[in-house]
């Protein structure tokens, strides 16, 4: 990695100092004594152990490290607590927390997360490489062992299916991978049909990644027994988080891929996928626990990787095995096991101390890069805040004022009944279902009936590239009163998306989001709830605690309007993501994802 204020220097630069400190010729800067070591390399728990570190790296692990202690050494009595490697998130989009990298670090370090692999394709879809660059530079300023991936999906498929704020191709991938060793690879390759059928852009991006000696992550949503999964794997993509069944995990592992098991805020896949190990008996060394997306309120109320590890243990995974799946397995997937993922000599001193039973994952101290940064759930370290560039702001270029007429759906008949394709939301899952529903038509306009749990949905291009928009119908929102939600968090193109059952309220909500320069607005006859997101229209520059409160207020407003979905806002934010089955809406139209590929289909049958 690049040198940082936290002393995360390349291993080779540190060797003379590390060896001298291990001998005792140089004193350790930190010693932790009397701990039960969770050795994720050997799969053991070793009592009566101690750890010595100098600067950001560990120099000695053993029963007696007294020879490393000097006058300036900070000595911590572990009191018999467990000491485990800091937890790693193997697939995460920081922007999906609606926080900057600084506030994300403040949120997760007290929870035991000391590093991760971050695919900044959300901000990249808005601002391209400029957005990726400032995310990387800000992450470097934090205590986290943060590794960034170049977005492969800008756009997620191609410009004919959606409009994004930028474009990233093979040349841009090659450029970004040269920014440092912490640019670890290519982010999830969502255009899996493009890879399978030889799309020049996708193949070129993967080639640029492999040529740089980096790693390509995947996103394959066809069935696990589809003959094209081995084709996808042949490209060099060897990690995938789109596993929703045990069979998905089994087939990927058998092909040499890393199967990432996801427990986000709104998609709960660990209980099903972990059965590949607990019932299928597969070796877990190529299985990784990840979050993908967790909201700020989930971080505050449930946790981060500590929550995911605890959940895996509750599903029958042995505690040490679960820790392996969030530490050493993750590090090995990205070729970084000398630096992170284990408490071994030479590795970064990213260590967590845990009280009580190991299965409780009760983190009471977090050490990152050899410094105590959090205790008892609170940050104890601070650092100079990164200043975001001016280009991070004022990115909503709607260039129009919305009216109720913008939400009128033209029907194929003048009056009577028409059959339309509706997007049905599936709670706690990323996929949707295509439903064929009857809608009333009057004067040539379709009138989806809220009594049938139908809402209108609109996506407006907001990057200043033509201002097109498309309309659709959504089933399963649950509104029981006139209501509308508008947001510029709409993966992955992040155009302005509006969902509701009242055209006037939809226009008001959409216009207010544009006025705020991004965010979320929930509008009912009783009042308005706002969640401003002025950084790229998808993140807030406010403190973590404020972001969590504002996010939770949107959740409560949705619930009060009748929407019962768990983490409803995050679920709704995926309804424009045109690479996940079965059907979505972009600014170009209704997009269906099938075994044959990804195509625009008409709203009415």
Keywords:
ten-stranded mixed sheet, alpha/beta, nine-stranded mixed sheet, elongated, 605 residues, 29% strand
Describe the structure.
By secondary structure, the chain is of the alpha/beta class. The termini are far apart. The protein contains 18 helices and 30 strands. Helix 3 (121-127) crosses helix 4 (129-140) and helix 5 runs parallel beside helix 7. Strand 15 (362-368) and strand 16 form a beta hairpin. The mean pLDDT is 96. The chain is elongated. It catalyses: adenine + H2O + H(+) = hypoxanthine + NH4(+). Residues 83-373 form the Amidohydrolase-related domain. Its EC number is 3.5.4.2.
List unreliable stretches of 5+ residues. Answer: none
The tally of beta strands, per DSSP, is: 30
The shape, in one word, is: elongated
Number of helices: 18
- Mean of residue pLDDT? 96
Structural class: alpha/beta
User: Could you estimate the helical fraction of the residues in percent?
Assistant: 25-40%
Largest sheet: 10 strands, mixed
Strand content: 25-35%
Distance between the termini: 54 Å
Rg on CA atoms, Å: 24 Å
Main sheet: strand order: 18-21-20-19-23-22-25-24-26-27
Topology (elements, then pairings):
Elements: H1 11-23, E1 30-39, E2 44-54, E3 57-62, E4 74-77, E5 82-85, E6 87-92, H2 101-108, E7 113-119, H3 121-127, H4 129-140, E8 145-150, H5 170-177, E9 183-189, H6 192-196, H7 200-211, E10 215-218, H8 228-234, E11 237-240, H9 246-254, E12 258-262, H10 270-273, H11 275-278, E13 287-290, H12 296-301, H13 305-314, H14 319-324, H15 328-333, E14 351-355, E15 362-368, E16 371-375, E17 378-379, E18 409-410, E19 416-425, E20 432-442, E21 445-447, E22 454-460, E23 469-475, E24 483-487, E25 496-500, H16 503-516, E26 519-524, E27 527-532, H17 544-560, H18 568-572, E28 583-586, E29 589-594, E30 597-601
Parallel strand pairs: 1-4, 1-5, 6-7, 7-8, 8-9, 9-10, 10-11, 11-12, 12-13, 19-23
Antiparallel strand pairs: 1-2, 2-3, 5-14, 14-15, 15-16, 16-17, 18-21, 19-20, 20-21, 22-23, 22-25, 24-25, 24-26, 26-27, 28-29, 29-30
Helix pairs in contact: 3-4, 5-7
């Amino acid at each position: 990695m690049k040198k940082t204020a936290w002393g995360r220097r390349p291993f080779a630069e540190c060797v003379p100092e590390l060896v001298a400190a291990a001998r005792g010729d140089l004193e350790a800067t930190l010693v932790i004594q009397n701990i039960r070591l969770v050795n994720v390399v050997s799969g053991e728990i070793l009592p009566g152990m101690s750890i010595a570190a100098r600067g950001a790296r560990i120099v000695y692990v053993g029963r007696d490290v007294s020879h490393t202690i000097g006058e300036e050494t900070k000595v911590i009595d572990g009191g018999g607590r467990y000491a485990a490697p800091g937890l790693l998130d193997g697939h995460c989009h920081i922007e999906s927390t609606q926080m900057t990298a600084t506030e994300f670090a403040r949120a997760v370090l007290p929870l035991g997360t000391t590093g991760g692999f971050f695919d900044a394709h959300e901000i990249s879809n808005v601002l391209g490489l400029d957005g990726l660059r400032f995310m990387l530079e800000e992450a470097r300023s934090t205590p986290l062992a943060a590794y960034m991936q170049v977005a492969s999906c800008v756009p997620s498929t191609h410009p004919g299916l959606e409009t994004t704020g930028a474009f990233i191709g093979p040349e841009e991938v090659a450029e970004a991978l040269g920014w440092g060793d912490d640019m670890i690879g290519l982010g999830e390759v969502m255009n899996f049909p493009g890879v399978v059928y030889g799309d020049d852009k996708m193949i070129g991006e993967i080639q640029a990644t492999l040529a740089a000696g980096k790693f390509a992550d995947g996103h394959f949503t066809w069935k696990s027994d589809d003959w094209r999964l081995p084709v996808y794997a042949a490209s060099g993509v060897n990690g995938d988080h789109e596993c929703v069944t045990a069979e998905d995990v089994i087939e990927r592992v058998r092909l040499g891929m890393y199967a990432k098991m996801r427990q986000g805020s709104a998609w709960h896949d660990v209980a099903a996928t972990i059965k590949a190990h607990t019932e299928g008996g597969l070796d877990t060394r190529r299985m990784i626990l990840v979050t993908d997306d967790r909201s700020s309120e989930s971080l505050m109320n449930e946790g981060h990787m500590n929550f995911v590890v605890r959940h895996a243990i509750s599903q029958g995974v042995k505690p040490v095995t679960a820790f392996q799946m969030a530490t050493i397995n993750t590090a090995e997937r990205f070729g970084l096991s000398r630096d992170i993922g284990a408490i071994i000599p030479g590795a970064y001193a990213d260590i967590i101390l845990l009280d009580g039973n190991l299965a409780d994952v009760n983190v009471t101290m977090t050490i990152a890069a050899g410094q105590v940064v959090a205790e008892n759930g609170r940050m104890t370290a601070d650092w100079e805040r990164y200043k975001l560039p001016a280009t991070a702001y004022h990115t909503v270029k709607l260039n129009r004022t919305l009216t109720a007429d913008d939400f009128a759906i033209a029907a194929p008949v003048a009056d009577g009944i028409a059959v339309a394709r509706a997007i049905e939301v599936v709670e706690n899952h990323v996929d949707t279902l295509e439903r064929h529903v009857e809608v009333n038509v009057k004067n040539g306009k379709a009138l989806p009936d809220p009594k049938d749990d139908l809402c209108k949905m609109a996506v407006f291009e907001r990057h200043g590239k033509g201002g097109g928009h498309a309309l659709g119908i959504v089933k399963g929102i649950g509104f029981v009163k006139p209501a509308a939600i508008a947001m510029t968090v709409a993966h992955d193109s992040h155009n302005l998306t509006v969902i509701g059952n009242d055209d006037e309220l939809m226009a008001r909500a959409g216009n207010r989001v544009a006025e705020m320069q991004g965010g979320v607005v929930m509008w009912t006859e009783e009042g308005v709830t706002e969640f401003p997101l002025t950084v790229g229209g998808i993140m807030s520059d406010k403190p973590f605690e404020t972001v969590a409160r504002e996010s939770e207020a949107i959740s409560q407003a949705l619930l009060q309007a009748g929407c019962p979905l768990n983490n409803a806002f995050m679920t709704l934010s995926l309804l424009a993501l045109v690479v996940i089955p079965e059907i979505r809406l972009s600014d170009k139209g209704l997009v269906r994802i099938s075994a044959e590929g990804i195509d625009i289909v008409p709203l009415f049958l």
